[in-house]
Amino acid sequence: MIIALIVVVVGGLGTFRGAFWGSILVGEVQTLGVAFAPQLALFLLFGLMALVLLVRPSGLLGQEVG
Questions:
Q1: How many CA atoms lie within 13 A of 39 on its CB side?
Q2: What 8-state DSSP symbol labels residue 45?
Q3: Do the beta carbons of residue 9 and residue 52 sit within 8 Å?
Q4: 53 and 4 in contact (C-beta within 8 Å)?
Q5: Distance (Å, rounded) from C-alpha 31 to C-alpha 25?
Q6: Contact partners, residue 66, CB within 8 Å, separation at least 6
Q7: What separation in angstroms does the CA of 24 have from each of 57, 64, 65?
Q8: CA distance 32 to 46
Q9: Dist. CA 21–CA 31, nearest whole Å
């Protein structure tokens, strides 16, 4: 459930393209994290989510609200 939440937040709410690209990005980060630093893999996912939220609060392909 946590990984699904991270995918939705990274990709942006309401877009299938965002969910697709978010899942690709999260999958790559998780795979590289497990391969090189297994103890930090989940931390890297939360770091990715925090970075995306800082740079673009609506997600990578989410629509701006307001």
A1: 0
A2: H
A3: yes
A4: no
A5: 10
A6: none
A7: 19, 22, 25
A8: 14
A9: 15
The Cα–Cα gap between 22 and 40 comes to: 20
* Under 8 Å between Cβ of 22 and 10: yes
CA-to-CA distance for 31 and 35, rounded, in angstroms? 6
Hey, what are 14's tokens? 């309401």
- Residue at token pair 């590289």: 32
**The two structure tokens encoding residue 28:** 């790559």
Count the residues in the chain: 66
Averaged pLDDT in 10-residue chunks for the chain of 66 residues: 90 87 93 93 93 89 72
